[in-house]
Structure formats: C-alpha cells, structure tokens
Specification:
Bound molecules: uracil
CATH superfamily: Uracil-DNA glycosylase-like domain
Radius of gyration: 16 Å
Number of domains: 1
CATH architecture: 3-Layer(aba) Sandwich
Largest sheet: 6 strands, mixed
Number of strands: 6
CATH topology: Uracil-DNA Glycosylase, subunit E
Strand order of the largest sheet: 1-3-2-4-6-5
Order of helices and strands: HHEEHHEHEHHEEHHH
CATH class: Alpha Beta
Number of helices: 10
C-alpha cells in the first residue's frame, strides 16, 4: 500500500478519535499535511483557531512565518510534511497537557513510521519535550542530534523555537531564522553519513 493510502486510512481513524477531552471542544481533528515522501517532517504543538476551522496545520500567522522561512531555504509546504503533537485544538489555545500529548502520541508515532523522514524538526518546547524530555529550548535550539525513540529507532532531531513565539520577538525571530537556514546543511550531513 502506498504511503498516501496508509496515511489516508490513519487519518480516517484519527478523525474518529475521542481518547482525550479535547475532541468534544474542537471543531475538527487536524491530522497533518504535506508530502508523504518528505525527507523533513516538522512537528508543532497543537492546532489553533484557524487550523481548527480549516483542518489544516499552520495556516495562521505562525504558518505564514513558517512559509517565509521555508522560502528562505528554497522549500515549499509541498516539499515537507507537517503535523502536531496534539491533533485537536486545546480550549483558548492553552498548552496541551502531558496527558493529552501522551494519548495523542500513537497517532504521531504512526505518522512518522509511515513517512519515515530523514529529519524531524521540532517546533517549540512541547514538541521538543515529546522527543527530548527534560531539555531547555533556550539551550537546545539550533542543535541537531540522533536520539533513540521507542517504535522509531535512531532518529535525527533538530530543535527550533516555535514560529508563533518568535513572530513578535525580534531577537528570537532572528535566532529562529538563523537556526532554520542550517536545515539544508543538516540534511546534507545526514545523507553523507548514510
Ligand atoms: N501552532 C502549532 O503548533 N500548530 C499549528 O498547527 C498551528 C499553530
């Protein structure tokens, strides 16, 4: 079965999920979007208002900034896959709870298993925490590392600030852009090491 068919099946199951308390309070499940054969998978936190309305990830202000940064490294949305650690919008855009992230993990795990990205780019501390627990994003941003994850094996991660946090913070915005522009070199290095 093609990766697209596998993801379609998974998305259908995801849409019917009611494992945590977020589903009754949101409009729709936001599974993820992009190239199912992508080498890079970006993982954010959870859908916001616009994402909840459209069913697509990163379509608000943070998404526009993300597109701008992708453009800076000559990539488009269609070249990558993007998903979130939580697939449903938390009320009033509050942080997802550890329990909600835990209950949503099997969906994200299966997405990664199907897509098999060479590089996972975590956006923000909630995404980083899922894969690299107990770290500080102020220390970890801009660092690429291999890390063993149950169900995935050894996987390369690159941790970045969240575009929404950096959007209106001049210093963080510059740092995020600088970190972002290192992505092509990191991907190149992964290819060389294979
Ligand atoms: N912020 C996220 O982390 N994910 C989205 O999909 C939108 C905003």
């Amino acid at each position: 079965m093609s990766k697209q068919s596998q993801l379609n099946q998974l998305n259908t199951k995801m849409s019917a999920c009611s494992l945590c308390a977020l589903r009754p309070g949101c409009t729709r499940v936001v599974p993820g979007a992009g190239d199912t054969n992508a080498k890079i998978m970006f993982i954010g936190e959870a859908p916001g208002k616009k994402e909840d309305e459209t069913g697509l990830p990163f379509v608000g202000a943070a998404g526009k900034f993300l597109d701008e940064m992708l453009g800076a490294i000559k990539l488009k949305r269609e070249d990558i896959y993007i998903a979130n650690v939580c697939k449903c919008r938390p009320p009033s855009n509050r942080d997802p709870s550890p329990e909600e992230v835990k209950l949503c993990w099997p969906w994200l795990l299966q997405q990664i298993q199907i897509i098999e990205p060479k590089l996972i780019v975590t956006l923000g501390r909630h995404s980083m925490e899922r894969f690299l627990p107990g770290q500080k994003i102020s220390e970890m941003h801009g660092h690429a590392m291999r890390h063993e994850i149950e169900g995935l094996g050894l996987q390369v991660f690159y941790t970045l600030y969240h575009p929404a946090a950096a959007l209106y913070n001049g210093g963080m915005r510059e740092t995020l852009l600088k970190d972002f522009k290192r992505i092509p070199k990191i991907l190149e290095k992964i290819k060389e090491e294979k």
